[in-house]
Recover the amino acids of this structure.
């Protein structure tokens, strides 16, 4: 681009210089030369008229015009030679013209004047009437016309060249404007790529981090200053994450998860076992008991079974045993199986998480995901539900259903704790929790609810 | 832990395997109350003879060597009693019907136990153990071996 611009600039300068040269030549040489040709013609005509007047009238005053004409002729011829010295064709024409003028003067005019001065006027008139002088002068006029024609050609040629240069200059100007436009566009693109895009990206990512999305990495790049700011914000993000994660690992959330797991274990090892034993003993005694009491005891047996069912559900809600033995993915799969068994809902679990997740993080992830899954079962009436759980410097989970959904803020319902507890727990762990929903009434073709949350891994940095 | 004074209660009766037409069952659980009540439940049904009630997986395998019961009921949270025990029971020469009992069995665990050799997985206190055991024997056409 720079080379093209340079070429156009040089061509423009050359074109300007050439056009200036031609303008100067026209003004300084050609137009004055044309004037000298006119002057030369007048000088010749003066000589012809003066000599004829003297011959016909013998009045010497006519000779003044003749003498002045001769002087003018020499002077104009000399100036023409000087002006057109670099033009061989014009100089040749001038040489011929001078020669013809000399012949006309020496062989025609001068002898006639001499005859009149010698008192032989009649002889002089005879020579005039013979037409010798007229033919000779006509030849001079013809040569003079040739000279004028040569100068006209040069003037016209100069004008044509000037027009050509003007046209060329116009084309160069258009080309220059085009090149300038392209250059402006390229500079604009370069600026956008090099400055605007990195700035917009930094703004977007920093806004996300400021909004609590500490899983949003700040991408370095761009000009040195922008890159420095990006790296500083990323450093700050990592420090925040580190501090929050450290706090999480030692904090209330961890203690609560540990306590939930302990309570689940206690339920498994003690109350459920004791109730099972009591139930079986009662069942064993039923055949030995009379009818009214037997029916009553069968009711107790049934109630004990119901209590154990609820305790088992509570135990799984607190901390399912498979979470420790088989990992998060299996625990979620079990939850989906049990929650949607017999409902006809199509459930999908997509995960790349193995069983190596830290126990507390796995427990909290399961808890938040389970809350969203149970809420979908209780309130959404979906046809499909998809749970995605993936490693992302922690765990990122989405629970998406195509149920009835809602618009605006969720309506608090009895037993519907997820919308309050989820954000609080995720934030306490250094993560985030979000809910979005579209109602089937307002969006019949695209409705449902999505719960998404992210929890950091303690050693993320 | 099994209290010492329960050792006698858990001991195999002297006439184990001598009662002829009843199906014989061996059971294992490290919770003494559960074990006693389960024994009472099966005995009370009249169709079953409890040939052993032990609190360890190794002891259960020894019982199989001697008694070859038609049915085994076992917990999965006791000494030497985990999923490997189900696999060893499944490969035992006497190959009894195997019922795994658990207070907290998830669907994935139940599937895995069935793959390892269990014939049935039941939830303590929720599923009707005796009814389920008798139905299983009927379905498989199991009758007393002696």
């Amino acid at each position: 681009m720079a080379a093209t611009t340079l070429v156009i600039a040089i061509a423009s300068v050359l074109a300007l210089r050439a056009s200036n040269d031609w303008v100067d030549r026209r003004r300084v040489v050609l137009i004055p030369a044309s004037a000298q040709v006119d002057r030369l013609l007048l000088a010749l005509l003066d000589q012809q008229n003066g000599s004829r007047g003297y011959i016909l009238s013998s009045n010497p005053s006519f000779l003044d015009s003749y003498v002045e004409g001769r002087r003018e002729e020499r002077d104009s011829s000399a100036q023409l030679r000087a002006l057109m010295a670099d033009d061989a064709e014009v100089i040749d024409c001038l040489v011929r013209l001078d020669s013809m003028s000399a012949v006309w003067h020496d062989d025609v005019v001068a002898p006639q004047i001499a005859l009149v001065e010698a008192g032989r006027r009649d002889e002089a008139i005879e020579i005039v009437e013979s037409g010798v002088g007229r033919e000779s002068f006509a030849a001079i006029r013809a040569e003079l016309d040739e000279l004028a024609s040569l100068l006209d050609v040069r003037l016209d040629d100069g004008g044509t060249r000037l027009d050509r240069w003007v046209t060329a200059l116009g084309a160069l100007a258009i080309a220059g404007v085009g090149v300038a436009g392209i250059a402006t566009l390229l500079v604009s693109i370069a600026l956008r790529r090099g400055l605007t895009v990195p700035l917009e990206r930094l703004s977007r990512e920093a806004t996300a981090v400021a909004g609590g999305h500490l899983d949003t990495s700040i991408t370095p790049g761009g000009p040195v200053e922008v890159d420095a700011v990006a790296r500083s914000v990323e450093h700050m993000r990592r420090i925040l994450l580190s501090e929050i994660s450290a706090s999480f690992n030692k904090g209330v959330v961890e203690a609560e998860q540990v306590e939930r797991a302990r309570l689940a274990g206690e339920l498994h090892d003690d109350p459920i076992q004791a109730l099972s034993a009591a139930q079986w003993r009662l069942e064993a005694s039923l055949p030995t008991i009379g009818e009214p009491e037997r029916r009553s005891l069968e009711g107790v047996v049934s109630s004990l079974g119901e209590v154990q069912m609820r305790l088992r559900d509570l135990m799984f809600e607190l901390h399912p045993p498979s979470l420790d033995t088989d990992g998060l993915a299996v625990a979620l799969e079990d939850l989906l199986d049990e929650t949607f068994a017999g409902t006809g809902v199509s459930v999908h679990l997509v995960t790349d998480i193995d069983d190596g997740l830290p126990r507390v993080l796995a427990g909290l992830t399961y808890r938040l995901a389970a809350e969203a899954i149970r809420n979908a079962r209780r309130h959404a009436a979906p046809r499909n539900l998809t749970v995605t759980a993936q490693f992302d410097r922690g765990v990122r989970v989405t629970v998406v259903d195509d149920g009835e959904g809602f618009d605006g803020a969720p309506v608090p319902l009895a037993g519907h704790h997820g919308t309050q507890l989820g954000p609080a727990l995720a934030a306490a762990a250094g993560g985030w929790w979000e809910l979005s929903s579209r109602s089937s009434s307002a969006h019949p073709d695209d409705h449902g609810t999505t719960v998404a949350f992210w929890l950091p891994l303690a050693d993320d940095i | 832990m099994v209290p010492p004074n329960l050792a006698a209660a858990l001991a195999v009766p002297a006439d184990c395997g001598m009662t002829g037409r009843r199906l014989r069952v061996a059971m294992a659980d490290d919770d003494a109350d559960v074990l006693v009540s389960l024994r009472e439940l099966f005995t009370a049904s009249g169709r079953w003879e409890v040939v052993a009630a032990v609190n360890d997986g190794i002891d259960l395998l020894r019982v199989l060597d001697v008694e070859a019961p038609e049915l085994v009921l076992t917990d999965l949270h006791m000494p030497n009693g985990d999923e490997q025990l189900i696999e060893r029971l499944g490969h035992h020469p006497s190959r009894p019907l195997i019922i795994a009992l658990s207070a907290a069995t998830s669907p994935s665990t139940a599937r895995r136990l069935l793959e390892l050799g269990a014939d049935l997985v039941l939830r303590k206190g929720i599923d009707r153990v005796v009814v389920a055991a008798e139905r299983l024997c009927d379905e498989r056409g199991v009758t007393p071996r002696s």
Q: What stands out?
A: The CA atoms of residues 197 and 222 of chain A lie 8 Å apart. Chain A touches chain B at residues 268-269, 272-281, 283-288, 304-305, 308-309, 312, 315-316, 320-322, 325-326, 330-331, 333-334, 337-338 (CB under 8 Å). The longest helix of chain A spans residues 132-210. The longest strand of chain A covers residues 448-456.
